Amino acid sequence: MKPRSEAPALSEFELIAKFFTRPVRHTVLGVGDDAALIAFSPGRELVASTDMMVEGVHFFSDVDPDALGHKALAVNLSDLAAMGAVPKWAMLALALPAADADWIERFARGFFTLADRHDVDLIGGDTTRGPRNVCVQIMGEIDSGRALRRDGAKVGDEVWVSGHLGDAAAAVAHRKGDLLLRGSVLAHCMARLDRPVPRVELGRGLLGLASAAIDISDGLVADLGHICARSGVGARLTFESLPCSPELMPLRGYEPVVRALLAGGDDYELCFTAPRGRRTDIDALSGRLGVALNRVGTIVAGSGVEVRDAHDHLLALEKKGFDHFR
Ligand code: ADP
Ligand code: MG
After folding, report:
1. Alpha carbon distances (Å) from 204 to 30, 49, 149, 208, 210
2. Which residue's C-alpha comes closest to atom 27 of ligand 1?
3. How far is the CA of 34 from the centre of ligand 2 (A)?
4. Tell me, what DSSP letter sits at residue 156?
5. Cα 168 to Cα 323: distance, rounded to the nearest angstrom
């Protein structure tokens, strides 16, 4: 085996220049000055969000750095997807225990592969030594007044979910020893946990169709609960209608999988509401994008989210989603 070369550690500035400075495509001034400059299009609103990922909380310490780079950006893109916005600019604040060039190079590869796919410029950030922590800020644009918000759901609207639910949470349950997954099922669930696909095109396609939207980061019941609270309505879900991947289907009856479907975070699918009259348009959008869109319930008068089984029995949910302080 070739001994690992003992290259001198890179300085903070060498590291930024080498790994995080890339040509920008729609930015006046990117990395390298005290701040970035963006020229803004008239008639558009700035859409901004940030999401932090902390070692031991959001990722395991042995995480593949390429996957972490992907996911740190993906979870932020998912927030813009839920607003129906076009993502354009990202900033990256990074705390690392050491300037490990190999680790950073792989992290940057995961980050930029996804950034390129969505034509996002990295326009700045901060780099410091500390316990591993990745904080991305994302910014994008949308025509003024058109964003998908949480507060637009109306009584009688139907509740929809994209893709499949529960895969990522099943992978976490496996890592914690609460569920045993094997072979291709394990590989599928781990990939969904490590490399979520933000539903950016779907979010944009839902403009003018959906009455409210949110991305599922903390679990369906909790996140739909946010739509309900902001819209002043309640929701009724049927457990049987929740979309489950073919891989997880044989385990669907197991308690940890039931929990993953209803309250598992980290799927980064979109949950949205729409009037019944938009069914055909939504099915057409699903076909055009090749993304499954399933109706899972309805919006009702009242408050909170109720889940019923096929016999119309209420399911008792002791934990509705992920909360950092409970
Ligand atoms: P300042 O001391 O003015 O805060 P820094 O030395 O922290 O500036 O950063 C220098 C430049 O490098 C800035 O443009 C900053 O936005 C950028 N930058 C620092 N860290 C990162 C990073 N991890 N990714 C992208 N850009 C970064
Ligand atoms: Mg700084």
Report:
1. 26, 17, 13, 9, 10
2. 125
3. 8
4. T
5. 17
Residue 40's pLDDT is 84
Q: Quick: pLDDT tens for 180-205.
A: 999 999 999 999 999 999 999 999 99
pLDDT at residue 324 in the model: 57
Q: Collapsing DSSP states into helix, strand and coil, what is residue 17?
A: helix
pLDDT in tens, 235-274: 999 999 999 999 999 999 899 999 999 999 899 999 999 9
17 CA distance to ligand 2 middle (Å): 14
Residue nearest to atom 11 of ligand 1 (CA): 32
In ligand 1, which atom is closest to the CA atom of 33?
A: 14
The ligand 1 site (C-beta within 6 Å) comprises 16, 20, 31-34, 92, 94, 122, 124-127
Q: How far is the CA of 54 from the centre of ligand 1 (A)?
A: 20
Distances (CA, A) of 243 to 90, 110, 163, 166, 201: 32, 28, 7, 9, 20
Taking the whole predicted model, whether its pTM rises above 0.90 is answered as yes
With 0-12 CB in 10 A as exposed, 13-18 as middle and 19+ as buried, what is 199? buried
Instruction: Tokens for 223, please give them.
Output: 């996140």
Q: Alpha carbon of 115 to those of 40, 70, 236: distances in Å?
A: 20, 9, 37
Mind listing the pLDDT tens digit for each residue in 206-239?
999 999 999 999 999 999 999 999 999 999 999 9
User: 231 in helix, strand or coil?
Assistant: helix
Handedness of CA 283, 286, 291, 295 (dihedral sign): negative
- What is 250-304 written as a DSSP string? GGTTSHHHHHHHHH------EEEEE-GGGHHHHHHHHHHHT--EEEEEEEESSSE
Instruction: Decide the pairing of beta strands 212-215 and 293-300.
Output: unpaired
* Four-point Cα dihedral 305, 165, 155, 75, nearest 10: 100
Q: How far is the CA of 41 from the centre of ligand 1 (A)?
A: 25
Burial class (CB in 10 A: 0-12, 13-18, 19+), 154: middle
